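Possible race condition, two jobs.
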Amino acid sequence: MHVPPIPSLTAADPELATLIESEATRQHDKLRMIASENYVSAAVLEASGTVLTNKYSEGYPGRRYYEGQQFIDPIETLAVTRARELFGVDHANVQPYSGSPANLAVYLAFLSPGDTVLGMALPMGGHLTHGWSVSATGKWFNPVRYGVSAETGRIDLDEVRDLARREHPKLIFCGGTAVPRTIDFAGFAEIAREVGAVLVADIAHIAGLVAGGAHPSPVGHADVITTTTHKTLRGPRGAMIMTTAEHASAVDKAVFPGLQGGPHNHTTAGIAVALREAGTEDFRRYAHQVVANAKALAAALVERGFTLSSGGTDNHLILADLTSKGIAGKPAAQALDRAGIELNYNTVPYDPRKPFDPSGIRLGTAALATRGLTEEQMPQVAAWMDEAVTAAVKDDEATLDRVAGEVRDLLVCYPMPGYTAD
């Protein structure tokens, strides 16, 4: 049963309520290892589902365009204060609707159309909004892209420096969507200073690890930090932009009125709750457990013959090339889902296959750690993954069904925020 309960919705729209209840059960019964997903707490769920969704609040605290902000202003101020204190930054904007609009606001704050931006190429682990061709950021600006070494699978800062010196970007992005290794923020900052560029650290995937002390922080190195508020941070689906005092006004003006209208106040409240939770010792233990689980799972997968990009992981994320397993990423991901293991197919560096049918899979351990799984369970997770991939090659649905049942049996012992058995 969904927690908090949804009796009013069940009465008003039983069809939709049934779908929501089914999704809650699905989330409970599967090993959820999509690297960008997690479970939020019941408190975040409650905050995100309140009457705050009724209120329009264009502008910023103390400078709104609508009346009736007596309680909205303190809520947003609370979220901003908690973000500043948690990450140790001068300024935070908690209004972006999601990570992509947050990054677009950075472009609007610092660039004009046609200016050069240096970012990680999407097939190498970067994000669409770091200047990839199908994104507005690749169409409206001049994108220059760096990748990873073919030998090590890691970013080569010498390559980044050479590109920056040659192309003179006004903006440099570090971070990405499939980067399994520690990001050298200090190294990127040195390059940005040398060429006079603004350094943006996109920590959407690792924000919770940074907050929990399980990954180095970009604060003090990056001029601007963007992040989503879900993923490892365990908040609602929103985003933040954090900056030095020097860039606060430009970023705020880019978010509103540059790109957005009124913020989603119910999401702001959920972000405030998540940030409070992220400042606790329990969250620090969770963040370190995420990394410990990922390292243990990566080692177990290597033992079973999986080829991992860069050979392993330093954070929550694992990127595996399934070529040696005799199957592409998409059919493997679909089979794994039927086996109760949720992840996504993904391009790997220098992938010879097309993006919609790539060679790899991407997975993460954030949600597993939230459920309470530890290193002890990771060899079994790797064994199930190996069985499921092998079964997919052989079209062996019986094995997939058996593994799914074993996954459900395991997860009964690990409570899920937002769900309880009837």
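Job #2 (started ~2 s after job #1):
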Amino acid sequence: MRLSITNVVVGSLALVSSTNAAVSQNCPGGGICYSLNIPDETATSGNGDIFFQISAPTTHQWVALGQGGQMAGANIFVMYSSANGQNVTVSPRRGVGHVEPEHDSSDTASITLLEGSGVNNNTMTANVRCSNCNSWNGGSMDFRSSNGQWIYAAKSGSPLESDDLNEELSVHDLHNSFTWDFTAAKGGNDVNPFLATATSNTTTTSTGGGSATPSNITSIMIAHGVMACLVFVILLPVGGMLVRLATFTGVIKVHIAIQLLAWSIFVAAFGLGAYMSDMGHITGNRHPIIGIIVFVLIVFQPIYGYLHHRLCKKTGRRNVWSFVHLTIGRIAIILGIINGGLGLALAGNASKGAIIAYGVIAGIFGVAYLAVAAFGEVRRAKSDKVKVEEQVSREKGQQESGLFQQNV
């Protein structure tokens, strides 16, 4: 293809401008790096284009960069691999609180994906020009100043491979905030500053590793999931079925021991979940919301159970605490089983085999528990009916005996 003199001149000027552009780079670790360039015109007026780059290994599902000191109100840019696995998708989103940020086409940053973006050598790269990043719904940033507050986040796992700007994101396992030195990023003209990769005026700093390392958060996530599943899929259903099916001496004591063990494990699992939820700013997600509801339901369940068994032992029949204890227990078990599936979906890194295994085991124990509970209620109703009939028969017999004595 022939190149005109104009093309050669423009290309040369672009290369010179890129070479002279100041680029400030922050690398939190794990192969993730963020780069920023503020052209001279933007640095002088405070308005205009800025350029940033997000780069990360394909061992991450997604990687994000955001303007602002916290998630709420932040101007966020999420990068993930495109559907064909060769390019990248950059989704502008607004941080609205401790929930997953969502793309809103009516209120997003004006960005352009530039040359040099894509997936190469197992690395995702997004070279981005933003034309209105000085102000957004929820915040602003003055590029005339010497620095600005930014946040970042990432999620390890298989690439998303999606072109959907509304793609659902699993909770991050790495995040932090940092102050970006704008003085090291100012310089150059309004052209792609990342085409010249080996510039002599690139300043690189480390932003730190986040509030928890991926390995630590993964261990916490696994512990939380295993403990919660053990409680709601096995221990609580088994304890509930045992007291309705078994007839050996001391069955009530065994039931109480199993349920107290399950309750203790759940309290610990809830603590781990609350820590991850707060750290990941996902308290608005349905999984932690249901977890909180279940915790509120069963936090006093041992007390309800004690009152239920104590009064039943005295009177031989159920009381108000019996219905409170039984109703809460059944609702908590059902919600807990459902929430386990939601937790696997939220984690985003569970294998298909693990999801299937959970579904099968939870389904078996859940159906068995409900069947035994129904069977227990039917059997109890029949037993109560027999007791009533026997009571009526005794009272009738006593009445007839009294009449006989009077006649004699």
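The chain is about 50% helix and 20% strand.
Logs attached separately.
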